[in-house]
């Protein structure tokens, strides 16, 4: 169906899900109750959390006052020659601005890593013309706090007043809000009744995007154009329809494949990944987004659901077992997918607004930092430049080479399972590792996700731990080219990154998940070795 701002078509299991689920959603007035911010829609266990997380439904209108504030700030900063905008933030604080700016064609440097080589590279580039946006909902996110500290120090070392170069975006009353105001920084508050992954149209999405040069008023216009449609208790409501496609197939097709089929929204699959994985992956249930870029699969397994993200003028008719086409402007689609995720949560039977296992991984990382990072577990064995360790069930079965360890890991795959590659490396410099994802998926004939750490911890990290227990996990860490101290803290970025990886592995192990941990004792040699081994496993030849 086509409506103002969005277009959706579906066949197969998705179409059957719409027929089965949407009439009941219409009868109970799910859409109008959602836009009236009714917290009872997901059951009593979710009610208290939902009661403080539903303001996102009205952001297309309530965020309007930010437009003028952002425009005034941009004029002020550009007049000072500040033309390079760096965003320090994680998860919901970074993925939306990244997509907004890419779609608008304006540059934005996204620093969503604690990997010291990435942090140092961001610091080294054109500090004289750099404006930094520090975004943290809680005001206590350790990654973001560390990034803020290192930029403050860099500005001070260069004789630049940090208060003139750093803009803070946070919830009102957060520790970061209070300390930043007291320190003389520019602070923009976000709506506190919106969760991070639903915050694209709050200050978290709009401030860095607008300062970088994106037209945020047009983005709000796009969302507003579909707001009334998505609030209608009508079978043609695309939010209800897409939500049914996601969460209403029977049996549930829980591997969602958002494929770029010519969309004019670069990176939109990554934003969808966080929204859906972090919202639904809990209580042993959920939907696993498998972002494939333009690597559209030629066939689907029984647990896979393909969504083709198409250009607005693309009039193709979907074909296949469970294939859906979705198009529309960015702002309209952001609201559409948020509504659909809320609907899917209802159909699956989970609370789409909490993220318990993201918090557990954070706590485990803090424990490792507090205990000190000098005593890593001895490796099971060393192969060349790669130290091999495991966590969770013992599955090595005597393997003593990298190739054999990888084969032992994938031998744990079940017919409904998936492989998650989790790389705590430099996502800008080490891209050859990400290129192994598609060949691996073809060779294994099972979904393969790829996440850069710690970025994915705020996305698929929730699903890996809280969703169905059918994943196997490949974690890759490295020795940085040069470590970097976190000013005012007793740990370095390298130590913090190691703690995040260790905490992630320990929580996965606590959930009984098999984890193969590969540490590159020599980055360049180790990376070459791992890429070669993964390429070999996928049936190719290493270059």
Give the helices and strands, then pairings.
Elements: E1 6-12, H1 13-27, H2 30-35, H3 44-50, H4 59-62, H5 64-79, E2 84-88, H6 95-104, E3 109-111, H7 116-124, E4 130-136, H8 142-157, E5 166-170, H9 175-183, E6 186-189, H10 203-212, H11 216-230, H12 238-247, E7 255-260, H13 268-280, E8 288-289, E9 304-309, E10 322-328, H14 330-348, H15 356-371, E11 381-383, E12 386-391, H16 402-410, E13 418-423, H17 431-434, H18 437-444, E14 448-452, H19 460-466, E15 471-478, H20 493-510, E16 515-520, H21 523-537
Parallel strand pairs: 2-3, 2-4, 4-5, 5-6, 7-8, 7-9, 9-10, 13-14, 13-15, 15-16
Antiparallel strand pairs: 1-10, 11-12, 12-16
Helix pairs in contact: 1-12, 5-10, 6-10, 11-14, 12-14, 13-14, 13-19, 15-19, 15-20, 16-21
Account of the protein in words:
The structure is a single chain. The protein has 3 domains: 6-29 and 233-348, Rossmann fold; 63-219, Glucose-6-phosphate isomerase like protein, domain 1 (Rossmann fold); 356-537, Glucose-6-phosphate isomerase like protein, domain 1 (Rossmann fold, 3-Layer(aba) Sandwich), CATH 3.40.50. It has helices at 13-27, 30-35, 44-50, 59-62, 64-79, 95-104, 116-124, 142-157, 175-183, 203-212, 216-230, 238-247, 268-280, 330-348, 356-371, 402-410, 431-434, 437-444, 460-466, 493-510, 523-537; strands at residues 6-12, 84-88, 109-111, 130-136, 166-170, 186-189, 255-260, 288-289, 304-309, 322-328, 381-383, 386-391, 418-423, 448-452, 471-478, 515-520. The chain is built from 21 helices and 16 strands. It is of the alpha/beta class and 543 residues long. The longest helix has 19 residues, at 330-348. The protein is 43% helix and 16% strand. It is globular, with a radius of gyration of 23 Å. The model has no long low-confidence stretch (mean pLDDT 94). The strands form 3 sheets. A 6-stranded mixed beta sheet has the order 11-12-16-15-13-14. The protein has a 5-stranded mixed beta sheet with strand order 1-10-9-7-8. Strands 3-2-4-5-6 form a 5-stranded parallel beta sheet, with helices on both faces.
């Amino acid at each position: 169906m086509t409506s103002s701002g969005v277009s959706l078509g579906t066949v197969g299991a998705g179409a059957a899900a719409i027929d089965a689920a949407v009439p009941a959603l219409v009868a109970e007035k799910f859409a109008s109750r959602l836009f009236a911010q009714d917290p009872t829609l997901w059951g009593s266990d979710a009610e208290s959390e939902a009661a403080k997380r539903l303001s996102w439904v009205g952001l297309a209108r309530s965020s309007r006052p930010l437009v003028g504030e952002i425009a005034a700030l941009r004029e002020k900063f550009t007049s000072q020659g500040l033309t390079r905008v760096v965003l320090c933030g994680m998860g919901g604080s970074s993925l939306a601005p990244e997509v907004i700016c890419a779609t608008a064609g304006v540059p934005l440097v996204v620093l969503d890593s604690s990997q010291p080589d990435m942090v140092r590279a961001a610091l080294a580039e054109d500090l004289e013309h750099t404006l930094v946006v520090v975004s943290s909902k809680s005001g206590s996110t350790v990654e973001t706090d560390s990034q803020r500290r290192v930029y403050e120090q860099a500005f001070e070392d260069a004789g630049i007043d940090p208060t003139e170069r750093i803009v803070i975006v946070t919830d009102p009353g957060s520790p970061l809000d209070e300390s930043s105001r007291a320190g003389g920084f520019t602070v923009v508050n976000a709506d506190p009744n919106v969760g991070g992954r639903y915050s694209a149209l709050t200050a978290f999405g709009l401030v860095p995007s607008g300062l970088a040069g994106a037209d945020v008023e047009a983005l709000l216009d796009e969302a507003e154009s579909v707001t009334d449609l998505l609030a209608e208790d009508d079978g043609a409501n695309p939010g209800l329809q897409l939500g049914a496609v996601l969460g209403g197939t029977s049996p549930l097709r829980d591997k969602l494949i958002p494929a770029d089929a010519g969309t004019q929204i670069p990176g939109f699959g990554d934003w969808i990944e966080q929204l859906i994985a972090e919202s639904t992956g809990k209580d042993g249930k959920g939907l696993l987004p498998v972002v494939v870029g333009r690597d559209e699969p030629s066939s689907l397994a029984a647990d896979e659901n393909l969504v083709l993200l198409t250009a607005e003028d693309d009039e193709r008719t979907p074909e296949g077992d469970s294939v859906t086409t979705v198009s529309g402007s960015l702002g309209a689609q952001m609201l559409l997918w948020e509504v659909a995720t809320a609907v899917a949560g209802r159909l699956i039977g989970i609370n789409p607004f909490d993220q318990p296992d993201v918090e557990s991984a954070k706590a485990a990382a803090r424990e490792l930092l507090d205990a000190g990072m000098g005593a890593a577990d001895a490796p099971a064995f060393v192969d060349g430049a790669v130290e091999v360790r495991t966590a969770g069930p013992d599955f090595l079965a005597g393997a003593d080479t990298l190739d054999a360890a990888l084969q032992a890991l994938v031998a744990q795959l079940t017919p409904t399972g998936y492989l998650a590659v989790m790389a705590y490396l430099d996502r800008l410099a080490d891209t050859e590792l990400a290129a192994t994802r598609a060949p691996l998926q073809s060779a294994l004939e099972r979904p393969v996700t790829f996440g850069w750490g710690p970025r994915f911890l705020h996305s698929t990290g929730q699903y890996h731990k809280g969703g169905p227990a059918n994943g196997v996990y490949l974690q890759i860490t490295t020795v940085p080219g040069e470590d970097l101290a976190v000013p005012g803290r007793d740990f370095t970025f390298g130590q913090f990154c190691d703690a995040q990886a260790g905490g992630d592995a320990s929580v996965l192990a606590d959930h009984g998940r098999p984890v193969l941990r590969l540490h590159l004792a020599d980055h360049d040699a180790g990376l070459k070795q791992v890429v070669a081994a993964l390429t070999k496993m996928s049936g190719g030849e290493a270059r």
